[in-house]
Structures are given as C-alpha cells and as structure tokens.
Write a structure and sequence with these properties.
It is a single chain. The protein is mostly helical. The protein has a two-stranded antiparallel sheet with strand order 1-2. The longest helix is centred in the middle third of the chain and has 26 residues. Helix 1 packs across helix 2 and helix 2 crosses helix 5.
C-alpha cells in the first residue's frame, strides 16, 4: 500500500518549523476573505516566514509575553467568534467541532507566538525613522545590474485542493442570508445590510 502524506515541514526558521497544515489553515481563512486562490500560498508563506523570523529574534533578544497578555487576547478573540455565532457556545461547538475550552487550549501557543512577533516588531520599528517611500526611492536609484543575485535554496511545487464547505456551514450561511433578506424587505437600509 502507498503511504499518504498527512503533513510536512515546509520551512524551518531557528528552532521553529512551518508545517504544510499551518499554511493550509491560514490559506482557507484568507480565501474566505476574498484573496485569490493562486495568490494565497505566497501571501501566507511570506507572513509565516516573517512571523517566525520575528519570534526567533524575540527569543534571541529575550522579548517575553506574559500569560495575562495571552489570556486577554484569547478572551478578546473568543468574544468576537461567539458574537458572530449569536453568543451560543452550542453553535460554536457545532462549527469548530470542539468546546470553547478545547479551542482555548489549542489556540494558546498560536496566540502567544503572534503576540511575541508583534512585540518584537514594535521593538524593531520604534527605532526606524525612514518611510517606505524613502526605501523605495533608494532602491529605484540603484541600477538593476548592480543589485545582487540571490541564489535559490528551495524549489516549491504545490497541489491545490479547494476546501469544500460542510453542509452545516452551508445551512448556517443560508439562514444568515435569509435573515438579512427579511430585514431588507422589512425596510432596513440596504447599504447597511450589504
């Protein structure tokens, strides 16, 4: 029998790895927000590499995030997610397939890493006094043949599988859209509802 690849390491930054599943999860999220499928991999890959570099630098520079900061951010995100589902933990569990407590346990290391990266970015950026347009104009002044050529280290190939929404998710969105339609028919402002 042939084996089936469950996950794989796409990149390594310092002591951190970037898994294929990390990229897949974030791609699905941004594609829901309208980012084209053909551009989502590069966007997510760049964001994850940048974040891992910041976390690696934060570890070197001993930049820490407290448990209180992580808990506050986790509660903020959970309040937002629950509000999207009408405040119902039952709907939350149906949608995510796990309880709020399980979700919190799973998200804690991710949120801690995100906060550490943001904190490190703030430490780096506080010393910067140059604007992006100044950087752009600097590089435009350099002749193209004078820029160094960086040899590639990896070649990346991908197989794209479009995620199929569950029947539960289709039904939830259908109900939400029907409610919006009813509100518009009853006289609510169309622009606001859109």
């Amino acid at each position: 029998k042939e084996g089936q690849l469950v996950d794989g390491i796409i990149g390594v930054v310092g002591n951190s790895i970037i898994l294929k599943s990390d990229i897949d999860v974030q791609r699905a999220q941004i594609e829901e927000q309208g980012v084209p499928e053909d551009k989502s991999f590069c966007y997510v890959w760049q964001q994850l590499l940048f974040q891992k570099l910041l976390v690696h630098k934060a570890d070197i520079d001993s930049v820490e995030v407290t448990d209180k900061e992580v808990e506050f951010e986790m509660d903020r995100r959970l309040r937002y997610l629950l509000s999207q589902m009408g405040g119902s933990e039952v709907e939350f569990q149906k949608y995510f397939g796990k309880t709020v407590l399980q979700f919190k346990e799973e998200m804690q290391p991710i949120i801690k890493e995100n906060l550490k990266a943001k904190k490190m970015q703030g430490v780096i950026a506080e010393k910067v006094s140059i604007s992006p347009s100044e950087v752009e104009s600097f590089y435009e002044k350099i002749p193209a043949d004078s820029l160094p050529i960086i040899q590639e280290q990896y070649k990346i190939a991908q197989i794209i599988l479009t995620p199929v929404p569950s029947s539960y998710e289709k039904e939830r969105i259908r109900k939400e859209l029907e409610q919006i339609r009813e509100d518009i028919i009853k006289g609510k402002d169309f622009g606001l509802m859109a």
